[in-house]
Design a protein that fits this description.
single chain; alpha/beta; TIM Barrel; 2 domains; 8-stranded parallel beta barrel; 8 strands; elongated
């Protein structure tokens, strides 16, 4: 068995110019797929609110929901670095609340690190969490928990002023002790600039190829769903179609009396069956 991936391993990949792979997982089966495929980092994303619970945004998911998902993933995790998203209002209310929430992810959720959204405004919070011995991954650009403030899911940093704020946010996160930074939905040129400006790894999603790594949502990658996917998603399979076809075959077999067959059932010992028939008669 390979040794468990550490934060030092992830940071060494940037220095070696070796790309980092990260996928979301929300339960034991998806974590097992990530493990067997050799992904570097599993993110228990607050995108579970959308993908698993059917919400339109990530805002409704709770700490208890996220801890449940984290524990399920942790039971399957053997090698991957396990990072858990801190949900909305688990770190914005106060630094003390943030440290406590982050600690719960390590103590109860069995994660290795946490991820939170924001730049300079959360730098003090990141520093306090890191000072408590809890590794932090940052998140800049399109920050889904701020969807209402951003007036929707839009590319961020398209003009010089907003791009500068993202660069400054990345520097602030690095100075506060973040070990890596997710860059979501920013122009490729900006992502390349940020990646060059900070010594910690950048992991992109809709941020172009210059980032030190890439992350996608598990269900998007595998085509486990219907509807339009974001432009930056590459679907590597169409498992929704495979699953629907399998269930249709099951339904047809049931209706035709072909399932279950003799090979799918259990039989009583003939002598015991005779006794049963005698008792019933």
């Amino acid at each position: 068995m390979r040794e468990r991936t550490t934060i030092a391993d992830i940071q060494a990949k940037k220095r070696a110019r070796t790309k980092i792979s990260m996928l979301t997982a929300y339960d034991k089966p998806s974590a097992e797929v990530c493990e067997e495929a050799g992904v570097d980092v599993i993110l228990v994303g607050d995108s579970a609110a959308n993908v698993i619970h059917g919400h339109e945004t990530t805002l409704p998911i709770t700490m208890e929901d996220m801890l449940l998902h984290a524990r399920a993933v942790a039971r399957a995790r053997k090698r991957c670095l396990l990072v858990a998203d801190m949900p909305f209002l688990s770190y914005q209310t106060s630094v003390a609340d943030a440290v406590l929430s982050a600690g719960r992810f390590l103590k109860e959720g069995l994660a290795d690190a946490v991820k939170l959204e924001g730049g300079k405004t959360v730098a003090d919070t990141v520093r306090a969490i890191v000072d408590a011995g809890i590794p932090v991954m940052g998140h800049l650009g399109l920050t889904p928990q701020s969807v209402n403030q951003l007036s929707g899911y839009k590319v961020q940093g398209k003009d010089a002023d907003r791009a500068t704020a993202i660069v400054e946010g990345a520097r602030a996160l690095e100075e506060a002790g973040a070990f890596a930074i997710v860059l979501e939905c920013v122009p490729h040129e900006l992502a390349a600039l940020v990646t060059a400006q900070v010594s910690v790894p950048t992991i992109g999603i809709g941020a172009g190829p210059a980032c030190d790594g890439q992350v996608l949502v598990f269900h998007d990658l595998l085509g486990l769903g219907r509807g339009r996917t974001p432009r930056f998603v590459k679907r590597y399979a169409a498992l929704m179609d495979v699953a629907v076809a399998a269930v249709q075959r099951f339904k047809a077999d049931v209706e035709a009396g072909e399932f279950p067959g003799p090979e799918h059932g259990f039989a009583m010992d003939p002598e015991e069956l005779k006794k049963l028939q005698a008792l019933v008669d």
